[in-house]
Amino acid sequence: MIIDCSNFRNLIPRALLSDLTREEQEALQAHLKDCAPCAQERELYLNTFGQLRSADDAPVPRHFFIYPDESRPTLRQLFGQLSLAWKGSLAAAFLALAGLSALAFTSMEIRSEPGGMVFRIGNAPEPVAVGPAPSIDLEALKSELTRLLENRSRNDKLEILQTLRAEMARSESAMTRKQRLVLETALSRLESRVNNRIVDAAASLESANQRSLGDMYRTLETQRVQDLSSVNDRLNRITVNGEIKSNQTDAILETLLQVAELKLK
Amino acid sequence: MEESFESVLLTNSRIKPVDAPDQIQEIAWVAASRGGDTLAFNRLVLKWERPIYNLALRMLQDPEEAAESTQEVFLSAFKNIGRFRQEARFSTWLYRIAMNQCISRLRRRPAETHYSLDDSRSDASIGSRLPASESHEGAFLLEETRNRVRLALEHLPPEQRAVLELKFFQDLTFEEIASVIQVPLSTVKSRLYAALEILKVRLGRASV
């Protein structure tokens, strides 16, 4: 009986919500006639349902209209309203655009160059490939440049190097990346060699100057010694001459004295 | 004199009220709304704002939040009406938006205060909530019952409260409820009968 009541009590709310089969409904009705506790349970449910139903709707505090300015459709909403064909086309276009953007992004290059920044999307442009890329005889170019530079002053040489670098930057689009790299290396070496030569030239000049000063000193010393000797000789000669003249004067005076003494006599 | 939005709504909509069954008229308004007709959509708002507001009020137990939530429901419905394929009834779709909105709000709230069965808050608070104009006995008793129901509903988990709301206050069938909250029919029934068991203890005892 207890088990039966438990089963029937579970059916009570289901019965009130018309969720029973006809057989279950009839069995419950029969049980409720004989079972006071289950009938009381039913009353509790009925009371509960009654209270729930009494909580009727409250009036709205205002209307909840949508105004045109706040109802502007979003992109997503517009997309949602398109037909399947249009959606597919747009999706394909978007994917293609995304793919191209990704490709461009992966091959993008930004770097600084003498004279400004370089922004490039994609690979470095190759020279217009009508035939094979023009080859450059770097050794001949190097020797020619060296010959030219050796005949110039240091400033001229530096100026030529700057000009060459600027020219290289300007015309790099005409060279392949590898050629540009080789030329850059050659120019660096050339510059280094020119600088070394300038330093050597300065050192040799300094050495030559020192040598010439020593020679000049020695020449002057010799000249001075010769001059002194000459002066000394002259003085000696003057002295000798003076003595000779003095002897001659004495002789004359002696002669005169003798003459005078004779006359006096 | 400038025309009010409501008067424009009632006169200028591309979709006029016709002598057609309610359901057909609603389908026409939905179709026009999908084409961006705000006035047609506002006819749907006029029809459904009271049930949706009361659903939100019973779920959230806060008039201001219920109004805010109702506005969001209609805005969301209008923005997403392109997705509504009319395989289900518009009301089912609208209830689903509203219920998701309410349950989401309830879950965002800090842990709710639960009251024991002996909670004496009801009597003290009911009197203080009554407007002076409803102070005669009948109104008092009605308001007392409403508040007791409100308090009892507060103790239910959001999922049970949702099923009870849709069954008792929106009069949806079990199948419709399953469609709104997107759970199996058996889950709907088990949640509903569990909720009724709790309410029977609270409301049944209080009235005895």
State mean pLDDT of chain B (0 to 100 scale).
80
- The secondary-structure element order of chain A is HHHHHEEHHH
End-to-end Cα distance of chain B: 58 Å
Identify the strand order in the major beta sheet of chain A: 1-2
CATH architecture field of the domain at 1-113 in chain B: Orthogonal Bundle
Please give the structural blueprint:
The complex is a heterodimer of chains A (265) and B (208).
Chain A: H1 2-16, H2 22-34, H3 36-54, H4 75-81, H5 84-106, E1 108-113, E2 116-121, H6 138-150, H7 154-170, H8 177-264
Antiparallel strand pairs in A: 1-2
Helix pairs in contact in A: 1-2, 1-3, 6-8, 7-8
Chain B: H1 5-12, H2 22-34, H3 38-60, H4 63-79, H5 90-108, H6 121-129, H7 137-154, H8 158-169, H9 174-181, H10 185-207
Helix pairs in contact in B: 1-3, 2-3, 3-4, 3-5, 4-5, 5-9, 6-7, 7-10, 8-10, 9-10
Q: How would you portray this structure in words?
A:
The complex is a heterodimer of chains A (265) and B (208). With 265 residues, chain A is mostly helical. Chain A contains 8 helices and 2 strands; from the N terminus they run αααααββααα. Among the domains of chain A are: 46 residues, no CATH class; 78 residues, no CATH class. In chain A, strand 1 and strand 2 form a beta hairpin. In chain A, helix 1 crosses helix 2 and helix 6 runs parallel beside helix 8. Chain B has a domain of 113 residues: Rna Polymerase Sigma Factor, Chain: A (Orthogonal Bundle), CATH 1.10.1740. Chain B is built from 10 helices and no strands. The longest helix of chain B is centred in the first third of the chain and has 23 residues.
Key words describing this protein structure:
heterodimer; A: 265 residues; mainly alpha; two-stranded antiparallel sheet; 8 helices; 2 strands; 5% strand; B: 208 residues; Rna Polymerase Sigma Factor, Chain: A
